[in-house]
């Protein structure tokens, strides 16, 4: 198969890249190995982590269209109460992690709607479920990529002048020989205050296998997981208790705190103020990442709230899942940990009334679209990252370093983002690393590999470090990166110029930034303070 642009990976970055290139008139092939497009928002079941100003600014126009489309979908198809229907910034789940917590399947529907015109016209071809298995290169260029069907022995060779890696782990980087880095860089290389003295390439953030729950009458206890005893008794040195407990380190202070767990509180959804500046929102884990608040819907429509479990105790940091021979084993262990957390909650978890266990907790695999009840895909926070023309480092955006100056103002900015440097416990034994950040920009140089000419990152695989990945890995930034990668491929095809030339030629750079602005990509922040 042939196309102008090949996008490998159908997460948020991949979808945004495919949309941008197709809207520009290019023929596009988009591949994805899981059943749903949307990545962390859908198949990984992670409600969007966003900054405090997302309703006003700080996102691309197409990302805003996705968010508005999700709200409109609820208003058109769900039995909302009149009060909730009139809520301008409708938060269907009334979760505290985001102003837009929702069921993954709704995001899938909206993404499919956004792609539908280009699929119908034949400009966009989506190959699902396919994953990359090989690549052909010629010097500093990628000639083509081979993808294999997940469930049967079918392979397709795809040729395109521009190849975008939007996979969750930067899978095309080793396949194409593109230079990349993993894990923790040395302080001598990056100068970062939070970096170690020596590089630690296998020290990566925890992965999580999320799942959805409700709480209804009856006993819905799952079978006892095979390794339950191990996880029940597991006590990391820095955790302050067993991993399977309501106690864990506070990400920002590392103080051992105890969170509450109260299913189906009779709270007012419209009273939830999901602002990470004021409150991380994880005090009651049930409402933290709730994706359906039953009080938003007409009486009896939902027997229970639905909450999404992406909580501290499901973080798996026993070993990395990138560039190790036993990656699949670690991923299976991460799934076993998630089942064990659920079984612990159903049978042994302390209740506010002094009893133990919540047998009414019911696994909602129908909500995550999976036969085994868990999310279709693991949430992998940290990808392989290209060795880029410019690497974003901690001192570019750290609030402690930059202070009132704000994040570095990049002359080649192609987007904006905001999130604290939020590193989960790691495979190297690190506790949380959480650093306040300034609202930051995305430099084009972070999307340009040092050597390869026609491969572009379109997700979490851009030129960040282990530390700054903690800020650049979230939903709106991944979408922005992917969208700009798609726009850049089109621009380069139109001008007959390489991505490297676009960054380093002032005239081309200005023209490309104008192209981004015209597409609704914000390049600068207004005057606001970090947190």
TrEMBL record:
Q: Which residues cross the membrane?
A: none
Record's signal peptide: none
**InterPro entries referenced in this protein's UniProt entry, alphabetically:** FAD/NAD-bd_sf, NadB
Per the record, the domain of life is Bacteria
**Record-linked PANTHER family:** L-ASPARTATE OXIDASE, SLL0471 PROTEIN
Q: What is this protein called?
A: FAD-dependent oxidoreductase
State the species of origin. Micromonospora echinofusca
């Amino acid at each position: 198969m042939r196309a102008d642009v090949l996008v490998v990976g159908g997460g948020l970055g991949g979808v945004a890249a495919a949309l941008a290139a197709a809207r520009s008139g290019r023929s596009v092939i988009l591949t994805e190995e899981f059943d749903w497009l949307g990545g962390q928002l859908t198949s990984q079941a992670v409600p969007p982590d966003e900054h405090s100003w997302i309703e006003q600014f700080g996102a691309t126009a197409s990302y805003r269209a996705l968010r508005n489309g999700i709200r409109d979908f609820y208003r058109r198809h769900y039995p909302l109460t009149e009060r909730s229907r009139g809520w301008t910034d409708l938060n269907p789940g009334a979760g505290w992690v985001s102003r837009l917590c929702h069921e993954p399947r709704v995001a899938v529907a909206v993404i499919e709607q956004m792609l539908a015109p280009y699929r119908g016209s034949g400009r966009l071809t989506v190959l699902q479920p396919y994953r990359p298995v090989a690549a052909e290169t010629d010097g500093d260029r990628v000639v083509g990529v081979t993808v294999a069907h997940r469930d049967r022995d079918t392979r397709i060779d795809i040729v395109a002048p521009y190849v975008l890696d939007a996979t969750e782990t930067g899978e095309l980087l080793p396949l194409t020989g593109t230079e990349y880095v993993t894990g923790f860089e040395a302080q001598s290389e990056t100068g970062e205050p939070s970096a170690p003295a020596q590089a630690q390439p296998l020290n990566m953030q925890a992965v999580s296998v999320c799942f959805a729950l409700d709480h209804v009458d009856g006993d819905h206890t799952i079978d006892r997981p095979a390794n339950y005893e191990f996880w029940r008794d597991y006590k990391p040195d820095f955790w302050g208790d067993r991993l399977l407990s309501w106690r864990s380190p506070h990400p920002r202070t590392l103080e051992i705190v105890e969170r509450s767990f109260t299913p189906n509180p009779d709270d007012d959804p419209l009273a939830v103020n999901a602002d990470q500046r004021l409150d991380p929102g994880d005090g009651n884990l049930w409402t933290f990442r709730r994706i359906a608040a039953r009080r938003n819907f007409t009486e009896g429509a939902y027997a229970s709230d639905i909450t999404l479990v992406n909580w501290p105790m499901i973080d798996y940091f026993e070993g990395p899942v990138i560039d190790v021979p036993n990656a699949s084993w670690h991923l299976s262990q991460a799934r076993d940990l998630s089942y064990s957390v659920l079984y612990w909650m159903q049978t042994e978890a302390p209740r506010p009334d002094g009893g133990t266990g919540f047998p009414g907790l019911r696994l909602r695999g129908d909500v995550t679209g999976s036969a085994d009840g868990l999310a279709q895909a693991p949430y992998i926070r940290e990808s392989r990252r290209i060795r880029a023309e410019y690497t974003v480092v901690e001192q570019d955006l750290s609030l402690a370093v930059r202070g009132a100056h704000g994040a570095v103002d990049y002359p080649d900015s192609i987007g904006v983002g905001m999130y604290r440097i939020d590193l989960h416990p790691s495979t190297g034994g690190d506790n949380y690393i959480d650093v306040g950040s300034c609202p930051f920009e995305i430099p084009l140089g972070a999307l340009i590999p040092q050597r390869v000419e026609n491969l572009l990152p379109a997700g979490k695989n851009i030129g960040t470090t282990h530390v700054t990945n903690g800020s650049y890995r979230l939903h709106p930034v991944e979408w922005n990166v992917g969208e700009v990668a798609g726009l850049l491929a089109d621009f380069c095809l139109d001008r007959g110029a390489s991505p490297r030339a676009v960054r380093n030629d002032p005239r081309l750079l200005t023209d490309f930034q104008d192209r981004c602005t015209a597409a609704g990509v914000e390049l600068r922040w207004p005057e606001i303070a970090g947190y």
